[in-house]
Amino acid sequence: MPLNLCRPALTLGLALTALAGCQSYQPKPLDPERALDAWSSRSAEDESLRVFADSLRADAHSDQYDPSDGIQLHEAERIALYYNPDLRLARLRAGVEAASAGHAGLWDDPRLGFDAIRVTDTGDDPWILGGSLAITIPISGRLDAERQRSDSALRASLSRVAEEEWETRMRVRRAWYEWSASALRVERSQSLIESISSLAKSTDRLARAGEIPATQVALFEIERVTHARTLQRLSSETEESEQHLRRLMGLSPDAPLDLQPSLAVPSDPEVPSHAVLIEQHPTLARLRDEYEFAEKTLLREIRKQYPDLTIGPTYESDQGSSRIGITGGIPLPVLNSNKRGIAEARAARELARATYETALERLMSDLSIARERNRRARSQLAMYESEIIPLVDRQLRGTRRLLEIGESDGALLLDSLKRTGRASMELIDSRLDEALAATRLAALIGPPPTTNNKLSNTDIEAQP
After folding, report:
1. Long-range contacts of 202-207 (CB under 8 A, 24+ apart)
2. pLDDT at residue 344 greater than cutoff 80
3. Which of 30, 45, 33 is nearest to 251 (CA)?
4. If pLDDT is split at 50, 70 and 90, which confidence band does 282 have?
5. What Rg, from alpha-carbon coordinates, does the chain have?
6. Which of 388, 314, 353, 354 minimizes the C-alpha distance to 111?
7. Whose CA is closest to 215, among 203, 202, 224?
8. Dihedral (C-alpha) 316, 319, 320, 321: value to the nearest 10 degrees?
9. What is the pTM of this model?
10. For 240-260, what is each residue's pLDDT tens digit?
11. Which residue has the higher pLDDT, 360 or 125?
12. How far apart are CA 68 and CA 66, in angstroms?
């Protein structure tokens, strides 16, 4: 090969060598059966879950994670933080942003150019060969702006994870209280049926003794059948509520799980000052980071209107005569100047500002409503527990004593029993209202400062 052909060939060889360092593609097909098996095998006893739950103890929960004695609310929240499918997606999306931020602001790859022309006239060297290597020097500052934009995108993504973690805890808490109330209604209904059946036997004996009319015995049987149908409906609702709770926890319908119903509510959370609330609330933090992303996007679009310098060496061989030089170029921002990108970025920034301000207004308004609703729910529950329930219990005990000594009839006792059943169901409803009101208030206040943005620091790729 002539010498004037060797140099371009060598350049081409170097380019091919550089291409050899590129990453290769490896397919990874979906495997639904394997995914379902992994889902079905999840358990509250998994060692990886225990490690994760223990790591949250100091920040998010004061109670120890111990599912061996049944699942309590605080343990259900930790299971959901580990297995919840929406949280998994949020963390993986943050992983995409992390990958983008890790490679943002890189220089453009050099561009290798090559051309060859053969002169048709006869001659010793009929070839005209040329080659160039162009390098883009980012004098506009767009690469630094791109790095800032990617970093802000990652922060916003992590804030979305923290927000999703807090909202997941609140969703689990609401679902837990709904299920607990339903399970307690089932227990109360079963107890009421047992009481009706027991009293039905007593009234039957009194009827045979002629102390009460025989027709009153049938009233107890009618009431027992009616409550049996109610029990079937309540049992079905409880099963549905449990499946919803399991879905939030990321567990399959058949996963072994011993849930312990409870409507116990912690003390009222302390409402912080506006400044602290604005700083720590996960939704406002996420919107604040998204506004910063809009700012950095506008900065990048502004920087893109300024040109970058393209420069590099060139080589040419013209019928045996070699030339070496340098080439350069710079675009002139006189026609496009990235006007569209800048205009869209400005509009997006205004939208992000309005979104944040609207969320702030809504939070303050909702917080005022939630505090009043929480106060009213606690007041109504206190009235039920201190006044109504004792009165109903006293009436039932008195009616039973009168029936035992023959001073009353079965119809009056049955009416007292029905009143007791309604009062106990209303008490469960009142406790549920209090629990949901307290949960709503806690959701609006947000996590304590020691826990905010802590959970999102877990390895976003390590979740199942």
Report:
1. 202/403, 203/403, 203/410, 203/413, 206/403, 206/406, 206/410, 207/410
2. yes
3. 45
4. very high
5. 37
6. 314
7. 203
8. -50
9. 0.82
10. 999 999 999 999 999 999 999
11. 360
12. 6
For β-strands 321-329 and 309-318, DSSP reports them as antiparallel
Cβ neighbours of 333 (radius 10 Å): 14
Encoded amino acid at 285, one letter: A
- The token pair at 436 is 């949901």
Residue type, 453: N
Q: Locate 323 and state its tokens.
A: 């030339």
Alpha helices in 41-141 (DSSP H): 47-60, 73-83, 85-102
**Cβ atoms within 10 Å, residue 232:** 12
Instruction: List, in order, residues 6 or more apart from 265 with CB less than 8 Å away.
Output: 431, 434, 435, 438
- Separation between Cα atoms, residue 428 and residue 222, nearest integer Å: 25
Contact 429, 264 (CB under 8 A): no
Using alpha carbons, select from 70, 238, 180 the residue that is nearest to residue 434.
180
Q: What is the amino acid identity at position 152?
A: S
Considering the chain, what is the average pLDDT of its residues? 82
Q: Which of 344, 348, 352 minimizes the C-alpha distance to 290?
A: 352
In the chain the first and final C-alpha atoms are separated, in Å, by 59
Distance separating alpha carbons of residues 202 and 204, to the nearest angstrom: 5
